[in-house]
Automatic annotation (TrEMBL), chains A, B:
GO terms assigned for molecular function: DNA-binding transcription factor activity; transcription cis-regulatory region binding
Taxonomic source organism: Paraburkholderia saeva
Gene designation per UniProt: galR
Keywords of the record: DNA-binding, Transcription, Transcription regulation
PROSITE patterns from the UniProt entry: HTH_LACI_1, HTH_LACI_2
Record SMART domains: HTH_LACI
Residue span(s) of domain HTH lacI-type: 2-57
Coiled-coil regions listed: none
Gene3D superfamilies documented for this protein: 3.40.50.2300, lambda repressor-like DNA-binding domains
SUPFAM superfamilies given in the database record: lambda repressor-like DNA-binding domains (SSF47413), Periplasmic binding protein-like I (SSF53822)
Annotated protein name in UniProt: HTH-type transcriptional regulator GalR
Segments of this protein annotated with the region Disordered: 342-361
Alphabetical list of InterPro entries matching this protein: HTH_LacI, LacI/GalR-like_sensor, Lambda_DNA-bd_dom_sf, Peripla_BP_I
DNA sequence: CTGAAAGCGCTAACAC
DNA sequence: GTGTTAGCGCTTTCAG
């Protein structure tokens, strides 16, 4: 690996001249010198060492990205968008960490980022407690969280970008209601986060609007263990069992996200129930997987690309010094993608002579 | 951020003493001094700056991980295992990059890694051409590739860790044959990689064993565009169409991977075909998603965790100087997970009086 | 316009 | 045993 010294020697100039061309201060430079330096750079295949540069400038073109588990397709999706945009727009690379929803792992990730000179982080946490994020900000980091802030009143030190989860759940729930469902359930996993509680509020709001608040319940599976997202099948089975044996079995289910909906489908099927004949199901996220499930999942599409870009922009634009221009940006999901997992509730279907054509053999 | 100087001052010792305790050279040190230094470190919340350290040592505890797209659940799965193991076992963080199967993006990722002082990389590439990897090795990197090497004869500069794709495909194909299938197809995407061609060889080998070589064809969809993996639904539809209109329609299909199998299921369903009644399907990978599909997918489970660990171990253990102790480690997948996507072929099913009970309405 | 020189925070000889 | 010191590769005043 050649150094700036080598280039300087090769071009017969001083290192600072080379440094100047490296940093674009070429305006007041003799053409010929510039050309010589550039030639030397090419000849020696010189690439400035980011590390040495950062030691001096205190900036390293690295973005931290913290996710519960990159094996979860939703986080994989977000991560891809974040990485691509950070790279193309800002020339940043991303340093990723799985936290398995563990407080300590999150904290340790921040420590390492700091040690690596990384000062910009995007956090997708399932932890309601944001104090460790605030602490990171105090230590000079710019942190952007993918969720609403917990305390809308207080000034937070961390930026927030999130989908309008309240609205997403409301849209999903209304869709079920529009199809005639009156016994509703919201399926989620143990552990409360802002996003989950907002979704539940949206679910309840839609139920209340329709005078169905009494018939809208929340069922909870899990929790997701350290293996997290691959265990979704079991959680779905759990939940399916819960719902099937409920005295007044719900007919329309809003799942906290697409993966849960997929797990639920599997669980329901194991219990001998068919979607949408016996139960209707709507998800939220809009994963590409929802399009190829059987039945294809009706879901609320979140604007993932836009949110990812907004997070990167926030992380890059803000100055770490001031905790001032911190904000919250909420993206409203507007698109409900209708596919096959929602139909009329069983009773209505029967009355209309559509359902129970094929009995469970 | 406090520095080693601050700590030295606080503990009233010299920086080298502090450096010594930081690097575990505490054996020939007075208890009391050690205690004082440690106290100072805690008091000042001192964390050594990795960058400065690396500038000196030429080593940075970062592992590069290059994947076609982290949104692909299989790569997400591998990435999670790699990250977790690298972190827990070696204290390394991982720097990730999506290459979208693009030669230039891969090259540019390597450039950046080099500039960041990263010298160890795990590459999951869909590019058959390995020259850019060799070049990276020449520049002092340790690179481990997730695939067989292209030229088993020649000495390669890059390490290889891979599943036994030949065997995996053979197991999958034999399973179909054992169920009575005689018209076989292998479903893949455009673009040839070592892993794909090995799978095809395994497929053909199993067919030949059973004297079915004549009835074993390869169908190809795609290619995966830059959005890659989210487009799998369309590819599946394509392929389904191809197979349905083939003059002698295959009854047993081996999919190049689970995602392809899932896409194919959706495509087949759209064409009015039912799995496994009309067609049997087996995947390879063992994604958690295969367990919750409908029907649940029969698949060959790859030892992902073991392979991820082997890759990390290789990347960490090898010395960058010598391109000598390079090797190839092939993991044999032994487990076929039987689920619901394989049944007898339609003709046999009819003869046995099991199938076509419910006609396509 | 270009060069010399002082560090950024840490490590590792080499002295004492 | 502990302190001094010379860099790692680069940026950035500050002279010339």
């Amino acid at each position: 690996m050649s150094t700036i010294q080598d280039v300087a020697r090769h071009a017969a100039v001083s290192v600072s001249t080379v440094s100047n061309v490296l940093n674009g201060r070429t305006d007041k430079m003799r053409q010929e010198t510039l050309a010589r330096v550039e030639a030397a750079i090419v000849a020696l295949q010189f690439r400035p060492n980011t590390l040495a540069r950062q030691l001096k400038t205190g900036q390293t073109p690295l973005l931290g990205l913290l996710v519960p588990s990159i094996a979860n397709p939703m986080y994989g999706y977000i991560a891809r968008e974040v990485e691509t945009f950070a790279q193309e727009q800002y020339g940043y690379r991303v340093l990723i960490g799985n936290t398995y929803r563990d407080q300590e792992k999150e904290a340790s990730f921040f420590e390492d980022l700091l040690a690596h000179g990384v000062r910009r982080v995007i956090v997708i946490s399932s932890l309601a407690d944001e104090r460790h994020l605030e602490r990171a900000v105090q230590r000079g980091m710019v942190v952007v969280s993918y969720d609403r802030r917990a305390t809308p009143g207080e000034t937070s030190e961390v930026d927030h970008v999130a989908p309008d989860n309240f609205e997403a759940a409301r849209i999903a729930t209304r869709h079920l209601i529009a199809h005639g469902h009156t016994r509703l359930a919201f399926a989620t996993v143990a552990g409360m986060t802002m996003s989950r509680s907002n979704k539940i509020r949206g679910f309840h709001a839609a139920a209340s609007e329709a005078g169905l608040r009494e018939h809208a319940c929340v069922v909870e599976g899990g929790p997701l263990n350290e293996y997290g997202d691959s265990v979704i099948g079991e959680v779905g089975r759990d939940l399916a069992r819960q719902m099937v044996k409920a005295e007044a079995r719900p007919t329309g289910i809003v799942a906290v996200n697409d993966l849960m909906a997929l797990g639920l489908m599997a669980g329901l099927r194991e219990m001998g129930l068919s979607v949408p004949r016996d139960m209707s199901l709507v998800g939220m996220d809009g994963l590409f997987l929802s399009a190829i499930s059987n039945p294809a999942l009706t879901t609320v599409q979140l604007p993932v690309t836009e949110m990812a870009r907004a997070m990167v922009d926030r992380a890059m634009t803000r100055q770490s010094e001031s905790g001032k221009d911190v904000g919250e940006r909420v993206f409203t999901p507007t698109v409900l993608i209708e596919r096959e997992s929602v139909g009329p509730p069983p009773a209505i279907a029967q009355a209309a002579g559509t359902g129970s054509r094929k009995a469970n053999t």
